[in-house]
Amino acid sequence: MFTFRRFFRPFLALISVLVIAIAQPVTAGDLPTLEQILGRYVEALGGRENLTKLTTRSIIGEQIDDRPYKGERVTIGIEAWADTTGAFSMVMHEAGGDRRTGSDDDHNAKLAFIFNPQGPLMIAKHFPNPHVTGTWDYDGKLYYKVENDLKFEYYTLYFEVETGMLTRIGYHWWLEDFRTVDGVLIPFIVVRGRKGGSTTLYLETVTHNGDVTEHLATGGQER
After folding, report:
1. Per-residue pLDDT tens digits for 34-91
2. b/e sequence 39-60, b meaning 16+ C-beta within 10 Å
3. Can you spell out the DSSP letters for the chain?
4. On the chain, which terminus has fewer CB atoms closer than 10 Å, C or N?
5. Is residue 117 in some structural domain?
6. Any domain includes 99
């Protein structure tokens, strides 16, 4: 005897299988390789050819330290210079005088990568032994996680599954407001979460391939 239940039973079974398959977590075998993730990232930025044309980077901008428990937000002007060795120097024009910092300070490891004009081609230099470990869903956005030998919560790289872009480093750093300069996308806002607030870099101008030798020669010393 024909019944709707008997007719739809195969389709119900198929739907059940599909629901189970969709619900399964992503496994290592489902993940792209590190080379695929980095290759897509480089293409999303503008391509290897454009990146390799950049030899130095000069930056003018400002830094806003916003930690309400310490009082009013503090805004200072910054200038920074970097080359492809991973070295950079940054002058912070504070009320009490200029202060210089740079790549010789271990706390600046992420800035050294961001300022390096060919940083995206040198992931392993800045984040040793990078390897894909899974995905992470944060606020409705899915990321591929690339861990490395540095401290997990501060240095894991998060690449957006949808766009291929690296937009988070660790739990506390966000890269935003990407703009094209000399054919390459650069984050013009770098948000650094801090206890009780944040410190944010706002880049105003970015230029490439100028002579930065004198600036880098001073290292991270006070001036």
Report:
1. 999 999 999 999 999 999 999 999 999 999 998 877 788 899 999 999 999 999 999 9
2. ebbbebbbeeeebeebebbbbe
3. ---HHHHHHHHHHHHHHHHHHHHSPP-GGGSPPHHHHHHHHHHHHT-HHHHHT--EEEEEEEEEEE-GGGSS-EEEEEEEEEETTS-EEEEEEETTEEEEEETTSGGGHHHHHHHSTTGGG-HHHHSSS-EEEEEEEETTEEEEEEE-SS-HHHH-EEEETTT--EEEETTTEEEEEEEEETTEEEEEEEEEEETTEEEEEEEEEEEES---HHHHHTTT---
4. N
5. yes
6. yes
CA distance 11 to 27: 27
The CATH number of residue 154's host domain is 2.50.20.10
**pLDDT (tens digit per residue) in 60-70:** 999 999 887 77
Tally of domains in the chain: 1
User: CA distances (Å), 44 to each of 47, 50, 166, 176, in order?
Assistant: 7, 11, 10, 14
CA distance 79 to 203: 9
Looking at the domain assignment, is residue 222 inside a domain?
no
